[in-house]
Amino acid sequence: MTDGKVQPTEREQLRERCEREDVIMFINSCFAATRQNEYYTDLYRTSVSIEFLHRYVLINYRLLYARTLAAGINHFNQQQIIFNLLEAGAPADTKQRTEEGSLIATALRKLPANRVYALFTRLQQNRVNNRRTRAVIKSYLAWRREPEFDAIKYRNKYRAAAAHVHSRLDTELGRFLFERPSQKPYTTPLLNQYRQAQYSAAAIYELPFTVAESLAQKHQIPRDVFLKKIEPKMTAAEKLRLQSTAARTKGVEIEFDLSRAGLTKLALYILSLKQSEHAARAEELQAALEAAADKALTRAPLSLDRVATILDRSRSATGSREKRNRPLAVALAASTLLRRAATEYRAFWTPTQKENPFELLTYATGQTALAEPLLDALEWRPDLIVIVSDGYENDPPQLVDQVARVYRDAIGKAETPEIVHMNPVFDADHYAPRRLGATIPTVGLRDAEDIPIMLGFAKFTAGTATLDELERYLALRVNRMLNSDGT
Amino acid sequence: MEHKQPKTTDCLETISLKGLTLAPSQVLGGVRLVPVLRKQVREDLRLTKRPYYEDIAAIQIDNKTAYYSYIPHAFIADWTSDGSPAVAYGTQIRSNKSTKTSDGTAHDLGFMTARVMKKMRAREDRNRLRFLPMDVSLEGFLSLHFGGPNIIWEEYSRAAIRDGLSPRSETTIPGRWIKGLEDALRVFEIHTNQVGSLVFVGDALASAFIVSHPDDYRALHETLLTDDYGELLYYYGLYAQENCLDPDAIDVRRVRSMKDLRSEVARVRSDWDKLHRLMSDNLLDCPVRHEMVYRMGPFQLQRFMTELNPKAENHIGESIVRKNGTLEYLKTYRLSAAQCRRAYLLMQLADSNWSVEACAEKLSSTRNELIFRLEKAGFGYLFHRHVLEEVHSKLR
Hints:
The complex is a heterodimer of chains A (487) and B (396).
Chain A: H1 6-32, H2 43-60, H3 62-67, H4 75-88, H5 94-110, H6 113-125, H7 131-143, H8 147-153, H9 155-164, H10 171-178, H11 189-197, H12 209-218, H13 223-230, H14 236-241, H15 243-248, H16 263-272, H17 275-280, H18 282-299, E1 304-312, H19 326-341, E2 342-350, H20 371-379, E3 384-388, H21 399-412, E4 418-423, E5 426-427, E6 432-433, E7 442-444, H22 451-461, H23 467-486
Parallel strand pairs in A: 1-2, 1-3, 3-4, 4-7
Antiparallel strand pairs in A: 5-6
Helix pairs in contact in A: 1-2, 2-4, 4-5, 4-6, 5-7, 6-9, 8-9, 16-18, 16-19, 18-19, 20-21
Chain B: E1 20-22, E2 26-28, E3 31-38, E4 45-51, E5 56-60, E6 66-69, E7 73-79, E8 105-108, E9 113-117, E10 121-125, E11 128-131, H1 135-142, H2 158-163, E12 173-174, H3 181-187, E13 194-201, E14 204-210, H4 214-220, H5 223-226, E15 228-229, H6 231-239, H7 258-279, E16 288-296, E17 299-306, E18 315-322, E19 327-334, H8 337-351, H9 356-362, H10 367-379, H11 385-395
Parallel strand pairs in B: 5-9
Antiparallel strand pairs in B: 1-3, 2-3, 3-13, 4-7, 5-6, 7-11, 8-9, 10-11, 12-15, 13-14, 14-19, 16-17, 17-18, 18-19
Helix pairs in contact in B: 8-10, 9-10, 10-11
Protein name (chain B): ARG and Rhodanese-Phosphatase-superfamily-associated domain-containing protein
InterPro entries (chain B): ARPP-2
Pfam family, one (chain B): ARPP-2
């Protein structure tokens, strides 16, 4: 054949493209996907879809699969990746094995403890008990600062993990976990406290909140008395979560500094309030949101010039029962964050809402019309347009992509602003966050705090970067993740 | 005595969606829902539902006729004659005494519950009417030539001469049975000024539901699920695929400025409207036979039926029309093929004065073939046994 030389390169190109798209699709899904109901898809379809995707990438691109752990993906997918890696066993290549090992160890330490213990239980239930798994669990348990605390708070899971790896526990801890409850005292104060709490209502207030809560039931302590006394033991997340419960319970107020909460968490909390309370506390809540945004920006700095956002508040932004109001909260948080990061900023909510001084009074209703807001945004001539939407454009479908394309081709030419679509929702049917079209790159978005990372990642989904660049990007993030832990 | 022609000037000749726009559809699986938007909302007619929980309802129509059906709810229409805002039923404060209960009595029969009502439509107050949605039009459909033969041709059985078509029945299926309809209604994003929906199953128009006020629609949206549908749509639902509609894309060559782009976007929107009108052309702008059922101040409740062409889609329905011809309420039911066949044959027979010979000639078939067709359609009970047997032996 005369063109024998051309063919392999074409093939290689195709292969490169295929690989790049697979990996990008995977990473992109890992930002948004969870095994939960969404507005449009149910739990079953989502879990089948995301589990398939994990398996596919694990088998075909193992190195990149492990490195995805460092890409800033959500906790659920980190957990899933670690599980799959441990289940698959260690690779033969020493270098890859070491890197994977340290990635797993680092990622585990950054995950919330409840997720880690849930992962261990899952490993036990699936009978994954290879040498690496045992080593990983052992080293994690050894790394925990207060094993007694964990043993009390996550008792069953801790026991499952310890039994699964046959780890040698401290004598008292072993007795606490594996022997029948007795009245014999412990020398470890926390364990002793737990033993006492079984019999005395006064002793429960030294225990973690979740443990004390069930004991309070047992001792029939009135809710208000319990909440008042346990308050110092609550974690920040628990305090935020119990704000509305406390409001319902007479005479209890749980002190909580709203600005301590993460930006998206805070937005979720704000949207969970009743409309009347919402409006009455608007100024305080707005200040808290801004403080949270500033804090997120100091952690991941971002400075932009002229930014316009198109924020979807259509009915599908109510999310599902498990993720109540999540898409809307992400949009609200993103708006606050970008407002603080940009020198000039305008938000276009769709469907348009009545003029009100506080953005946080928004609520989800109506259809998804993105084309007209994009036109309004383009007319304002920003440098960057961020669309936060679940991608189910229906009024009319697929028009926003056409508007973006025609604007770029016929009007804006080289001065067209960069348009990025950030999607907090995973679409099970397409194995990725739903796209608005070919012109607008779509990235999955976990929390609004991740926007700086996602703006960097957008060039990969746009299809302009090569596989090499993606690999380098991932390697860089791996490097950063592993080294930041060492210091 | 001179017979006075009923006033028909403000009756609909065709179902036209004047003052209403069709927004782009929302599709989930085989079900397509087209939002109907009203440009100018008048507040003087409000609709609400009153749920019934009984398994069956029996309604007396006249001394000799009763109508039995599963009825999930009644609609309550409140109106004002002077155009001032009406208040939807259940939202105003008034003593219970003044509200007459015309909803009959509920009976628990042990194996089932039943509600017995005296009237299909009952005026509950000066400006309030209770009526049973869908049953207005189904009653009209069932009572079509209900009286039976008015000339005693020899073929007809004695029962047919004595009782007419009684008992006449039709079967429908609930919306819950249509695959994907429940989910499609759940995830549907209701527009702010939406007053109705067109329901397509497998891209065939299944039902149209329009009310006068957006708030009422929002409350009644889910009644689309408890509505009746023809059994044909059940099969459509089973086999339907998700279809994509593409009106002409924005033309790059026509765009020079932002203004052009805006007008192109508006053009695409109007294309969607046109496209949906085209898809429902067997109901909209199609000649219908209509009948005035009830006069309520400046409004009229009427029922209609498209021309029963057995080869095309046929709809029956009911509407409330304002004096100036604006459509304030619409609910339609798509007849299944067998149902239109039955109605078509009955109409043909009635048009030729129930003479089987004349009708057969009109349909260019033989007498035996026509009787066979009627029997297949479910009207065998109209004919003498020996007539049917003769037909069978001849056609064998």
